[in-house]
Design a protein that fits this description.
Largest interface: A-B, 36 and 44 residues
Shape of chain A: globular
Order of helices and strands of chain A: EHEHEHEHHHHEEEHEHEHHHHEE
Number of domains of chain B: 3
Strand order of the largest sheet of chain B: 5-4-6-7-1-14
Shape of chain B: globular
Number of helices of chain A: 13
CATH superfamily of the largest domain in chain A: Thiolase/Chalcone synthase
Structural class of chain A: alpha/beta
Oligomer: heterodimer
Number of strands of chain A: 11
CATH architecture of the largest domain in chain B: 3-Layer(aba) Sandwich
CATH class of the largest domain in chain A: Alpha Beta
């Protein structure tokens, strides 16, 4: 990885898809230390959940002046971003291309906030069995987290600790959507959205775009002396319908994706110095700790209670603010996590984790049936 | 002869009357009452079904297949949709042939009843019912047209004297009857004996509620059904017929918010594929390893076999495995509402269903209950039926808060 960029995340009413995408790409191009010509790009992947403003790949090619290369759209629910990075990595690793562009973007706030739930759920629900029930996205995760709270020692207070931590982290991120601190009491007393998630347990609805530039190992020097290396990628799946998931207290896709990524990188969870994980809802971050191997099963409450996942702790999680405070335009989220970790591994982050060498990015999404994990390092290996 | 009787009342109250839940209509209530009447009856004994109501969910599109599926009757059983109130229900019932299941279902006040026509068994000889007078005269003090527009002439004395009064005279009713279906309060009291049962509904279902009361007393007597200037009177014998009552304890209707929004289009192709197993509460069973799956799948969850599945009925007793309550406005839905994943009986099957007949948020992991036939949604004008979780113990969420 020799370049990375992203737009601000937020309710970007003044920007369309055709504005956000070229803005993120321009920032990624400008970030390349030794200069970068767009003409070097040989292929691009575009991660986007919903085709706002129409034909996705054409919009990327057209709006970024990349009309002479192949562009493919990739959609894999909330795992879209890190899966797009995985596809860009495979393209370079295969030797087919030496320089590729990976972009993620979504515009959640392009329709009324009142209809967003329906606008975004038709694509992820069984039309006959689940859709008529009103299984909106938060409910999707709430069914897991309520069972998790029932079986583990974790409480809503532990969930609130995740929100407080990520909001605190987000304050120093100029691109974050919610740059203010909150208290445990505020989280617990906020209006209920979908039990057990109050307003501050939920990610906001966001627009945004992010881009990274991946090049072949032998070309890295041409662009920078401080590249970030993609050391592992993984993607995991699970049964789609909640009725068919054996254990609701874990996300098997995460376990599978992480196992693949760790194996490719030749490391384990203990080696990770900083992570950006999918905290679309606070309780989900707790389950992620366990699925990613950051602690033992049902050990997440203790981990967050001890502050180990705060910046300054043993394994800082979501120093960017996470989806919770930074925002969550689904297609962009995974790519933007890699942008944050690129800054961390180069020592340029706003809230820097000292001496970070290994970093992990993680998405889990859809009807909790897909996860993608990317492991990055400052070391080539 | 009446072989068996079933009744249903939703828990929700509107003043002194019962009110339909957001997930109920005339068909779901008819299913609930019909299942009570069919308890202990071989489904093959049912030769036809007549649904009498003035509240058909669909005037075009057909209510029969959903009704049969909910009742667990073969799709080949003929269904007659009869528009009418209490006199129509009593007329059909008194003239019914063996094996006819007559169901009355009403939205306001809400309730349903069912009676199976046929000879009784050794244990219960059955209840005889003979029509003694049928009068149909026109005095439409209240009207409702095909679009649902209503008018009320608002002249109760005219209705009493020239409507009900004249019709009863012509029907040959002279003294006070044992029970009146179709009227409430003083109007009913004036026509019936002092010990006449109070019926919870006034439409087609009132006849079944009246029959149930007579059957439980074992006395028999005259049953009068009235609707404006129409009247039917029947003599009910003193025999015995089993009565099953699915009458839920009353609960005040909880405050909910309906958020307007674009109608979500139904996929009728998906609806049609799922119809039988979804409305009959059946699972697929692998013919190789017997693993159950709901909804049925092409490839077995257990052994990976792709041989065609057979379908089998699922048990209806369930336990809550997980649950959540949605408070945030969702267009087209009444909020808050509760979704639960339930573990079905002694099987490995879990289902995702909504909570019914209980306050949103009042159920907890580990609660037990049953699956009941309800309307899950209306999409593109199509009632979408399925099953919902009815908790064994229903409490208000406020009581829950105190308890926890």
């Amino acid at each position: 990885m020799v370049g990375a960029g992203m737009t601000d995340f937020g309710e970007l009413f003044d920007l369309g898809m055709k504005d956000m995408v070229p803005m993120a790409v321009a920032e990624a191009v400008d970030s390349v230390d030794k200069g970068f010509e767009r003409a070097d790009i040989e292929a691009a992947w575009f991660g986007e959940l919903v085709t706002t403003d129409g034909f996705a790949t054409g919009i990327l090619a057209d709006s970024c002046g990349l009309l002479d290369i192949p562009v493919s759209r990739l959609e894999n629910a909330c795992a879209t971003g890190n899966d797009a990075v995985r596809h860009g990595t495979m393209a370079v690793a295969s030797g087919m291309y030496d320089v590729v562009l990976v972009v993620g973007a979504d515009k959640v706030r392009e329709t009324s906030s009142r209809t967003t739930f329906w606008d975004w759920m038709a694509m992820t629900r069984d039309m006959a069995w689940d859709f008529p029930l009103g299984l909106v996205a938060p409910a999707n995760f709430a069914l897991h987290v309520n069972r998790y709270l029932h079986e583990s020692k974790a409480t809503r207070e532990h969930m609130a600790m995740v929100a407080v931590k990520n909001h605190k982290h987000g304050v120093s991120n100029p691109k974050a959507q919610m740059r203010f601190e909150i208290t445990i009491e505020q989280v617990l007393e906020a209006p209920m959205v979908v039990e057990p998630f109050g307003l501050f347990d939920c990610t906001p609805q966001s627009d945004g775009a992010a881009a990274v530039i991946l090049v072949a190992e032998h070309l890295a020097d041409r662009y920078t002396d401080k590249p970030v290396w993609v050391r592992g990628t993984g993607l995991g799946l699970d049964r789609v319908m909640h009725q068919h998931k054996a254990d609701l207290t874990t996300f098997p896709p995460t376990v599978k994706a992480a196992k693949a990524a760790y194996a490719m990188a030749g490391i384990g969870p203990d080696d990770i110095d900083v992570a950006e994980v999918h905290d679309c809802f606070t309780g989900v971050e707790l389950i992620n700790y366990e699925d990613l191997g950051f602690c033992e099963r049902f050990g997440a409450a203790k981990l967050v209670e001890a502050g180990e996942t705060s910046v300054g702790g043993r394994l800082p999680v979501n120093p960017s603010g996470g989806l919770k405070a930074k925002g969550h335009p689904p297609g962009a989220t995974g790519v933007a996590q890699c942008y944050e970790l690129w800054e961390q591994l180069r020592g340029d982050a706003n809230l820097q984790v000292d001496g970070a060498r290994w970093a992990l990015a993680h998405n889990v999404g859809g009807p909790t049936a897909v996860s993608a994990v990317t492991i990055l390092s400052s070391e080539k290996g | 002869m009446i072989r068996s009787i079933g009744t249903y009342l939703p828990p929700w109250t509107s003043g002194r009357d019962r009110a339909v839940g957001a997930d109920e209509d005339a068909v779901t209530m008819a299913v609930a009452a019909g299942r009570q009447a069919l308890d202990d009856v071989d489904p093959h004994d049912v030769t036809s079904v007549v649904l009498v109501t003035r509240d058909f969910p669909l005037l075009e599109g057909g209510n029969g297949p959903a009704l049969l599926a909910g009742l667990g009757l073969p799709a080949s059983v003929p269904v007659r949709e009869q528009l009418g109130g209490a006199p129509a229900a009593l007329e059909v019932l008194a003239g019914g042939t063996d094996g006819m299941l007559v169901i009355g279902s009403d939205l306001v006040p809400a309730g349903a009843s069912a009676a199976l026509v046929g000879g009784g068994s050794a244990a219960a000889a059955g209840l005889s019912i003979d029509a003694r007078g049928v009068v149909n005269r026109s005095l439409p003090v209240a009207t409702r047209d095909a679009s649902g527009n209503t008018t009320d002439y608002a002249d109760p004395r005219l209705l009493r004297e020239r409507g009900v009064g004249v019709s009863l005279e012509q029907a040959g009713v002279t003294g006070k009857v044992a029970v009146v279906a179709g009227l409430t309060g003083r109007a009913a009291a004036q026509l019936s004996r002092d010990d006449a049962p109070l019926l919870p509904t006034t439409g087609a279902s009132a006849v079944g509620f009246g029959l149930a009361a007579l059957a439980e007393r074992g006395e028999g007597g005259q049953l009068l059904a009235v609707e404006q200037a129409a009247a039917v009177v029947a003599q009910v014998g003193s025999g015995a017929a089993p009565v099953g009552r699915d009458e839920l304890a009353p609960l005040p209707t909880p405050p909910t918010t309906l958020t307007p929004g674009a109608d979500i289009a139904i996929s009728l192709a998906a609806y049609e594929r799922a119809f039988d197993v979804k409305l009959r509460l059946e699972a697929g069973r692998c013919t190789t390893c017997a693993t159950l799956s709901s909804p049925p799948r092409f490839r077995c969850l257990g052994c990976g076999s792709e041989a065609p599945l057979e379908t089998v009925p699922l048990p209806r007793d369930v336990v809550v495995h997980s649950q959540t309550t949605i408070h945030v406005p969702v267009p087209g839905k009444r909020t808050p509402y509760t979704l639960v994943i339930v573990q079905v009986g002694d099987t490995d099957v879990r289902l995702l269903v909504h909570l019914t007949a209980a306050n949103p948020g009042s159920t907890r992991i580990g609660d037990s209950g049953t699956l009941v036939f309800r309307r899950v949604a209306i999409r593109s004008g199509v009632p979408d039926y399925g099953y919902a979780f009815l908790p064994a113990e229903r409490t208000t969420s406020d009581e829950r808060k105190v308890a926890s």
